[in-house]
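In the design runs reported in the main text, the only information available to the sequence generator was the tokenized backbone. The following block is the verbatim input for one such run; it is reproduced so that readers can re-run the procedure and compare outputs position by position.
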């Protein structure tokens, strides 16, 4: 009877999560921020700083840092965004007036620029369909801009209260677990916590390091939209190969329009090749380590499945949940190897 009750509760929670997914995004972002900030506030408590004051100090420091970075980068990002849009317009003109006619003359087949543009646009829309649906779900709970502004305001408020009361929330959850399952639950939670914390911190640092490396490298080779493209490629690198593919595409397009030649694109390819070498040999081993073990195929599937099932909230939860599940599956795998079924013994 108890098992059916637990199963019913889990099904109810899953259904509520699915139904409430459009409004869960600020709560999820706030929860992730509180989770990342909890070790720092806990460390401040060791110096006899009350948790409320420690939470306030951490939040003020983070807000000041974000405000400083935003004020420093916003003018550059705005200028380079407008420049990239202009590059895109010029590239479409070159595509119709020069590239397609030359290609048609060389291969001896008549190519219609309008049909090619229409075909490329249709396929691009299909590839970006899951992202568009996710953003639509994220914004459908309110009236567009007002809802987004409210989310931006809610995240720091929710994050502050969650961070301040984090130990009390964990204690209340632990109090609901039956006593006979408490030791194994604590062991599983500890391993999942270590996995999740290492993954989130490491992934954020890898994204920052890659974005910085791309921006510096593209600036050295003379690309005028280097900072914008480098940051975008770094942010998208949480999905394997998505960051480098999008970065190479945007940077190659911008470099061709900027210089009017194909040869400088080789420098762009070299920058991203060096970035991939740094990621595999330096950033990931030192910043993430071997404690995660997330296969690229599993990461891609988790992100796509999360976005398809739960929209933007699913995108936020996909990788953290996958990291936790892998930690739990390692325990299940260990139990299975020690079980009578695997050892071919009588139970």
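Verbatim output:
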């Amino acid at each position: 009877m108890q098992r059916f009750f637990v199963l019913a509760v889990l099904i109810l929670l899953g259904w509520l999560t699915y139904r409430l997914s459009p409004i869960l995004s600020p709560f999820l972002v706030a929860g992730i921020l509180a989770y990342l900030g909890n070790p720092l506030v806990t460390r401040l408590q060791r110096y006899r700083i009350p948790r409320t004051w420690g939470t306030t100090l951490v939040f003020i420091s983070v807000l000041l840092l974000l405000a400083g970075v935003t004020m420093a980068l916003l003018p550059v990002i705005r200028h380079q965004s407008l420049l990239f849009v202009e590059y895109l317009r010029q590239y479409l003109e070159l595509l119709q007036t020069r590239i397609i006619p030359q290609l048609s003359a060389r291969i001896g087949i008549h190519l219609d620029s309008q049909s090619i543009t229409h075909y490329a646009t249709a396929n691009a829309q299909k590839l970006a369909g899951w992202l568009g649906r996710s953003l639509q779900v994220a914004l459908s709970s309110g009236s567009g801009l007002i809802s987004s502004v409210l989310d931006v305001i809610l995240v720091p408020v929710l994050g502050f209260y969650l961070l301040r009361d984090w130990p009390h929330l964990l204690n209340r959850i632990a109090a609901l677990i039956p006593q006979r399952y408490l030791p194994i639950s604590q062991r599983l939670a500890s391993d999942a916590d270590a996995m999740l914390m290492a993954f989130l911190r490491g992934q954020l640092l890898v994204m920052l390091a890659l974005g910085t490396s791309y921006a510096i490298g593209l600036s050295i080779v003379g690309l005028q939209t280097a900072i914008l493209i480098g940051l975008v490629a770094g942010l998208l690198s949480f999905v394997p190969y998505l960051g480098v593919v999008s970065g190479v595409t945007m940077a190659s397009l911008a470099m061709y329009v900027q210089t009017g030649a194909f040869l400088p694109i080789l420098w762009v390819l070299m920058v991203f090749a060096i970035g991939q070498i740094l990621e595999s040999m330096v950033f990931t081993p030192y910043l993430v380590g071997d404690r995660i073990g997330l296969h690229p195929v599993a990461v891609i599937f988790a992100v796509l499945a999360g976005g398809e099932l739960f929209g933007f909230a699913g995108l936020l939860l996909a990788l953290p949940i996958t990291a936790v599940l892998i930690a739990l599956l390692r325990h299940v795998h260990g139990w299975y190897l020690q079980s009578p079924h695997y050892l071919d013994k009588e139970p």
